[in-house]
Amino acid sequence: MEYRSYSDLNRLIRKNVSRFQTSKYDLIVGIPRSGMLPAYMISLILNKKCCDIDSLINNIALKTGSTRNSKDEIIYPSDAKKILIIDDSICSGKSLSNEISKIPFNIREKITTLAVYTSEKVRDDVDITLEYVPTPRIFEWNIFHHSIVGNSCFDIDGVLCIDPTEEENDDGEKYNNFLLNALPYIIPTGKINSLVTSRLEKYRPETEVWLKNNGVVYENLLMLDLPTKEERQRLGAHASFKAEVYKKSGQELFYESDRNQAIKIHELTKKPVYCVDSNEFFNKNSIISSFYNASLKKSYITRIVKRLPKPFYNSIKYFYHLIR
Known about the structure:
The chain is of the alpha/beta class. The chain is built from 14 helices and 13 strands. It has two domains: 2-138, Rossmann fold; 147-293, Rossmann fold. It has helices at 6-15, 17-23, 36-46, 53-57, 94-101, 105-108, 173-181, 204-213, 229-235, 238-249, 259-269, 287-291, 298-306, 310-323; strands at residues 2-4, 27-30, 49-52, 83-90, 111-118, 128-132, 137-139, 152-154, 192-200, 218-224, 253-256, 273-275, 280-282. The chain has a six-stranded mixed sheet, with helices on one face. Strands 3-2-4-5-6 form a five-stranded parallel sheet.
């Protein structure tokens, strides 16, 4: 499974800026919703007008903020001589083709199409692609609203709702109040296969009430069957419990809030894990996940690397920033 973040998208666009500069587009058009992300990024870098595809079709007056004017000022989409139409990704090509078919013929001759990510290395249904990313793939902007949710395991605290504070986490009245009234964080679209949480089994009723009140739809709720918070802390079974459930579940992805637990779950299962806190995707192809072994702390690794000769240290530092 492949994953791309907002940072990945930004780096890829900046890497290809010269391609857009030399083509001298005077209007950037995005296909809502996700196509607007790269469209606005590119238009801001080039300082060109940007609109969505409906505004292009209906020739709606273009707008910009009051802080700066764009180059080669145009008022209406029809004034543009060269138009770049953008979507974030292309797979079957049907979505892009459908949008292009709505555009009047007199405008189509001005158009170049771009899909940032493509599922095929060679294709003739789009003019420009920037990176080949085979399926299955998932993006930061759709990871909570992708069909993969139905084949995934989710942590609760720090993922669906905020984490309890130290004061709230008293295994008593304050914690009970937190369970019933925790602020929601990110609520996925679609039905989750399994909620896998380190919350104790005795808190199932309160957890189920919160999930219902906040519109979380799920198939299974699996909780730690231990008597107290102290026993849970003594055993330190958070990650191993989640990993065991995930490994046996047959699900494709685990959403975890804590980075250390995410790494441990990945190492124990050899299956993909998405860390919500750090926005990292750990899978078998991830250099970062193999570099950060759970038994080695990041600070320890950093100290070792810094002792290397300066040319080696600088090379490793440069490579690390490339892959992050």
